[in-house]
User: What shape does this take?
Amino acid sequence: MGEGITNEQLFEFMTKMYGDLNGKINSMNRAMQEMRENMAIMKENMATKQDIVRLENKMDTNHRALYDGYKLTYEKLTMLEEKVNEIDKKVEKQDVEIRVIKGANS
Assistant: This one.
């Protein structure tokens, strides 16, 4: 052995180092376990490709329904405008007829 180091001192030093290493290894194992748990939670909360496709299909269906509603509303509005124009023409014609009748009576 080297000068000034006894077997007992060497044994104590190695025991202390073993304890320190063992503590660090345990600490690393706990940290790794926490990371695994966090990753599992993140994985549960992540949307899968299947979820995204389902949402896209739902959005597409909703978009089509909104477009169909808009189209029906536009068609109905156009039809109502035509009816209002027809009624306006009839009112103008009747207004002219009333003036003619009043003019003939005067």
Remarks:
- Helices lie at 7-45, 49-105.
- The CA atoms of residues 58 and 70 lie 18 Å apart.
- The chain has two domains: 7-46, 48-106.
- Residues 49-105 form the longest helix (57 residues).
